[in-house]
Specification:
Elements lengths: L1 E3 L5 H10 L14 E6 L2 E11 L2 E9 L8 H15 L4 E6 L12 E3 L23 E6 L1
Parallel strand pairs: 4-5
Antiparallel strand pairs: 1-2, 2-3, 3-4, 5-7, 6-7
Length: 141
């Protein structure tokens, strides 16, 4: 089951992100756009986005180590992308050091960091939470 996160879920999501070597900076600012994959009361994964209309910056896609390889990451990504599209965003962006080969399979194209919309510069990810070596991807919705 995928559901919207609640404030009490944030420590567990941060633990998952940290165990995967992913940034947690700014996550609390985007709680309304954080969604969890849960089974039997256990959080198996999370995905979120930051809203910078008309663009969304995807972030915090993580699946617990024990639940990887079962399609949960794809399920979470498809859920968040459909939500972003329904909310009227025209493009989705992602920064990654961990899944650069996976994003193109979902229709993303790699772009240069200089091609990011200026509005995304307000994101914690672009203010240093993500390393400068993170690759940049865009999906036109």
């Amino acid at each position: 089951m995928i559901r919207q996160a609640r404030a009490g879920d944030v420590p567990e999501v941060k633990r998952l992100l940290e165990s995967a070597g992913l940034p947690t900076a700014g996550l609390d600012d985007h709680l309304a756009n954080l969604h969890l994959l849960e089974a039997d009361g256990v959080i198996l994964g999370a995905a979120a986005f930051e809203a910078y209309p008309p663009c969304a910056l995807l972030r915090s896609l993580v699946v617990s180590e024990t639940a990887r390889g079962l399609g949960h990451g794809r399920e979470l990504m498809q859920f968040v992308l459909s939500l972003v599209k329904r909310r009227g965003f025209s493009e989705a962006y992602a920064l990654t050091t961990t899944i650069p080969d996976w994003l193109p399979r979902l229709g993303f194209e790699e772009i240069g960091r200089a091609d990011l919309p200026a509005a995304l510069g307000a994101s914690a990810g672009l203010q240093g939470a993500c390393p400068v070596t993170a690759r940049v991807f865009r999906l036109k919705l």
